[in-house]
Amino acid sequence: MDPARFFAASRVLIVAGKGGVGKSTMSAALARTAARAGMSTMLVRLTPGGPISRLFAAPELTGLEQTLHAGGGPSGDADVRGRLVTPDEALAEYLADHGLARITRRLMSTGAIDVVTTAAPGIRDLLVLGRVKAFEASRTADLIVLDAPAAGHAVSFLQSPTGLRGAVGAGPIATQADDVLEMLADPERCRVMLVTLAEETPVNEVIETAFALEEEIGVALGPVIVNGLVPVPEGLADDFDARIAASTAKISATEIANLRDAAAFRLQWAARQNEQVTRLSQSLPLAQLHTPYVFTTEPGPPELETLSNALSIGIDALSEDDA
Amino acid sequence: MTSLATLLEQQTVIVCVGAGGVGKTTTAAALALEAARRGRRVCVVTIDPARRLSDAMGFDPDRAIGNEPQQIDVAATGELWAVMLDTSTTFDALIRTYAPSEEQAQNILTNDFFRNIADSMSGAHEYMAMEKLYELHNDERFDLVVVDTPPTSNAIDFLEAPDRITRFLDHRLYKVLVTPTGGLARVVNFAAQGFLRTVARIVSASVVDDAIEFFATFDGMEEGFRGRAVAVHDLLIAEDTAFVLVTVPRNDTVDDAAAFIETLATADIAVDAIVVNRVHPSFGSERLDGLADGPLAPFITVLHDSQTVAVGQDTVLATLTNELPAGAVVKIPFLDTDVHDLEGLASLAQWLTPEGTP
C-alpha cells in the first residue's frame, strides 16, 4: 500500500505502547514517514523530555508549535511540526475559557484544582483528547500523530471520555466527552497504532492492550509496530570455520573467538525475537510493521531516517485489508 | 564498602526505583528471593507484576483478595512472602484505622468522591505502596521488606504522595465553605464558593455535592493521617532503608535515572546500589576494519555492531555509576533476564550477587 494512502486513511494516529519499547521514537518515525509521503504532520507529546528533540536535532518541544523537520525541495517532503499539550495546561486553559481565568493560577497553587480532577477523574486526559480533536477539526495538519501515555495508561487515557460521560450528566464536559467519543469511534478520523518489542512481556502486554482498546473503547487499530528487530546479515548463519579457512587475512585466535561469539549471540538473539514475532501474529490478528534495532545508544537524525525507511517499506508491503 | 549483598543482609527496607519498562518488578522479586536465601524473612510488595512473574511466584489471584502476603514456596533458609498491591483495599483499610466509628468509615467508603481518590487519584498508587511498606515493616513476621515503586514520571512521587494526599484530604476548601469568616478569609471564601459553583456548572452539581460531603465526613480524621504520613516519611529516610535504582543502558533511560538520583538527593536520600538490566556483552575491542570485504564480512559487521553498543553503553553508564563503589553496581546481561519461573528468578538473583550465596 502506498504510504500516502496509508497515512491518509485517518487524520489522527494515536501511538501507544509499554514503557521502553520505543513508543516516542516510533511516533517521530511515523510523523517523518508521513511527511516524506507529502503529508504535513503535527507530532503531539504530553510530557516534556523524551527522544523526539534528539531524533530531529531540534530544540525541546514546548507548548508552542515548532518545526521539527522542514519539508519542501525536490523530494516533495512536507513539514513535521511538533508541540507539547500537557494535561495540567489543558485543564488550566479549559477553566480559564469557562470563566475562571482570574483565579485559576491560585487554585492550581493551593491544590484546589485537585478537587476538580478527583471529582471528575480523567478530566485532564479528556481535555488533552479534546485539544487533539480541535487540531483535527481545524485541519492544522494533514495528519496528527499523538505520542500517547505508556500502555496500561493508554487504555485509561482513551477511556476517560466514556468514564466521565457517565459521571457528569449534562454540561460542557459531557459535550466535550461526546465529541471525543465520536472521533475515537470513527476510523476515518482516528486510529491507534501499538508499538512493542519482540520480547515476552512486551508482547503479552501489547496483546492485552489491543483487545482492551478494541472491546472497551472500540477505536480502530492500525498495524502493530514490532520495534528493535535485530538484523541477521546474509551469510552469518553459514559455517564460520569454512569462512575462516577461506580468509587470507592475518587474524589472531582471540579475534576469531570474538567473531564467533558475537555471531552466535546475534543468531540467538534473532531466533528469540522470531519466536515472539510468530507468537504475536498467532495471538493478534493485526498486520505488523517491523523496524530494526539501531546499534547506537544515541539515536539522532540518521537513525530516524533508517526507521522511517523501514516503516515505508513495511507499509508498501501491506495489503489493502491489512491497513 | 557496601555491596548489594550486604544491603540484602543488613537493611530492613529496600525500595526499588526507576523508570517504567526497565525490569523493576522482576528485580525487586529477585532481590527478595536472594535475601531469603541468605536466611532472612522477606516480604516483597509488587505492583502490577507481569502475569508470568506472578504465576512464577505462585501467586494465586483468588487468594490475593484482601491484600495479604502469601508465602512463596522456595528453597531458602529464610522465607519469601509476596503481596500484590491493591491500592483501593489498602486505602479502605487506612480509613477504617482512623475513622472514629464504623458508621463514619462506611460513609466515607461508599462516597463516590472517596472512591475516585482511592481508585484513580494521581499519587494514590505511590501513597498506598508506601503505606503497605510501613505496615509490613511493623509486621514481626518479616525482617526485610522489598518494595517496587509504580512507574512514574515524577521521581519522588512515592516520597511526596503521602504528604500531598494527606494535605488534600484535609483540604481547606471545605473549611472555608463551612467556617464563618471575616476580613481576608472572607474573600477566599467567596472565591471558593464561586469556584465550586463554576465547577458544578462544568461537571454537574452532584459531583460537587459528593466532594463536599466527603470533606465533611472526613473532618477530624486528618490528624491521624498526617501522623501516619510523617511516620512513613521517617521510615523512608531511615538508615536501615536502602534505595536500589534499576535502569537499562540506554541514554534516555540513564538521563531519567540521573535526574532521579538528583531529585532523591534533594530529599536527603542516597541511592545505595544500581542494577543495570539488559547489558549487552562485549566481544573484544579490536576493530577489524581491514577485513570488512572478505569472506568474513557479515561476521565483522556483527562484531562491530556489538562493539559500538558495548562501548556506548559503558560511556552512558559511567556518568551514573562513577559515584558508587564497585560492588554496588550490578550489571545483568541481556538475554538472560526474561524470567518465566522461580528458577529464572533464582538465576537472576545469582547475577545480582556475583560473589555467590554464602
Automatic annotation (TrEMBL), chain A:
What are the residue boundaries of the ArsA/GET3 Anion-transporting ATPase-like domain, all occurrences included? 11-164
**Which molecular function GO terms apply here?**
ATP binding; ATP hydrolysis activity
Q: Which PANTHER family does the record match to this protein?
A: ARSENICAL PUMP-DRIVING ATPASE ARSENITE-TRANSLOCATING ATPASE (PTHR10803), ATPASE RV3679-RELATED (PTHR10803:SF31)
Could you identify this protein by its name?
A: Unannotated protein
Q: Which organism is it from?
A: freshwater metagenome
UniProtKB/TrEMBL annotation, chain B:
> Where does the record place the ArsA/GET3 Anion-transporting ATPase-like domain?
12-286
Q: Which residues form a coiled coil?
A: none
**GO terms of molecular function:** ATP binding; ATP hydrolysis activity
Recorded hits in InterPro entries, A to Z, give:
ArsA/GET3_ATPase-like, ATPase_ArsA/GET3, P-loop_NTPase
Q: Which Gene3D superfamilies does this entry report, sorted A to Z?
A: P-loop containing nucleotide triphosphate hydrolases (3.40.50.300)
- Protein name, entry field: Unannotated protein
